Amino acid sequence: MGALTMYLSIKLRRGVIPVIIIVSIIITVVIIYNSQCINNPVLSKQSEMIFKVVVDPGHGSIDTGTSYGEIYEKDINLRVALLVAEELEKVNIIPILTRKKDKLYMNSRQKDIRHRPEIANKNKADLFISIHANNFPSSQPSGSQVFYKPGSGESRKLAEEIQQELIKLRQANQRSIKNGDFYVLKKAQCPAVLIETGFLSNPTDRERLTDPVYQKQLAIALKNGIINFFQSRLSGKRQEKTLRTNVSLESNDEHPSYQLYYLTDSPTGILLVKRKLSFPTNNFFKQEYSNLSFKEIMIISAINQLLDPPDNLISPLPAKTKIDDVKINDGIATIDFSKETKTSFSGGATVELYSLEAVKKTLFSIPGIKGLNILINGKKGDSIGGHIFLKETVMK
Question: 389 vs 316, 335, 344, 370, 377, CA distance in Å?
């Protein structure tokens, strides 16, 4: 390696930066980028919105955790964690449980506690959520409390979002969030929190924590806190200011990512007006979209935004348009519009031409969409306005 570096430096010594310096710069940039992705997982979600959350039911098997009589913390933790996993699946978030039964990894407390954060790291999880129950010598303390990974701003933000949802669930959950010097939090390479769901030593908390109805409510609160965290990161990192630019139909402008195209009239004729497509952060976690991919959700959002044009702009689609179905296979998007798209269209041939171009440009601006099939009420080869028959279009 030394001989190679010397050789390259000699060959490039006349006014050119030695290759070793260039290599060092590249390595530095890669390290900085990777470190940003680790500290802020949403930055790595550029192509597909896939979220993985490790749900850790504390303790298990011979490690019962705290207890009150025959009520064991390990059992409550597991029941709540399984409910959290169910709730996350409903909103298209992938849950990864550190245990699904009453057991420990290799039946060893030491090996088990080391194994739990390893699950998050090996799966490149976005979040690590550890669920526990509290206890105290006195029966007076009550309420939930969230601890976050020390020195991690993202973990603190996650703790804040979860705590706010716990307060909505029950006003007694007013205990302050704190950093927690816990092994599982420190070793997780992603934002990590530990939730003490309540005190088994407190009669009211104990009754709630053993109540299946409250356990379900608790799981929903934790899910909502997780969603709020993801949405705050998405809106903060992915949203961009609105941009307006006039472009003609004939222009061969390069399609930037995520654009909307509306219609407007001018003295020279109809023009397409370009606006920035907003990321539908709320839609990513809707139960009705749980079986859709990120691109399919973006298509639905794009169409809905086209149907709600800004002032002085015109939607390329009739106001009564509905989406009956959206599917993407191998980059080819198939959109089935309702019959109202055809029966409510009132434009002439030129408007039809520009309207279809606006829809195509909008959907082709979504990265990964290479082709487009437009159906009307499930029918291929139909026409919106009677002038242009719809056929599969491939992006040029």
Answer: 16, 15, 17, 20, 14
How far apart CA 196 and CA 167 sit, in angstroms, is: 13
Last residue of a domain, one of 182, 202, 237: 237
The answer on 66 and 136 residing in a single domain is yes
pLDDT of residue 357: 93
| 176 located within any domain | yes
Name the more confident of 267 and 287: 287
Q: What is the pLDDT of residues 292-323, one digit of tens each?
A: 888 999 999 999 999 999 999 999 999 999 99
Whole-angstrom distance, CA of residue 339 vs CA of residue 355: 16
Instruction: Say if 3 falls within a structural domain.
Output: no
The CB-side HSE value for 224 (13 A sphere, CA atoms) comes to 13
Q: In which residue are the tokens 């080869």 written? A: 381
Q: Are residues 191 and 57 in the same domain?
A: yes
Looking at the DSSP bridge assignments, the partners of residue 314 are: 263
Q: Point out the domain boundary residue: 214, 237, 260.
A: 237
Distance between CA atoms of residues 302 and 226, nearest Å: 25
Per the structure block, which two tokens stand in for 253?
């402008």
What's 28's DSSP letter?
Answer: H
Residue 359 is predicted with a pLDDT of 96
| Torsion sign across C-alpha atoms 196, 199, 204, 207 | positive
| DSSP code for 63 | B
Q: Are 352 and 256 in contact (CB under 8 A)?
A: no
Asked whether 159 and 147 are in contact (CB, 8 A), the reply is yes
- Picking from 255, 170, 179, 166, the residue whose alpha carbon sits closest to that of residue 219 is 166
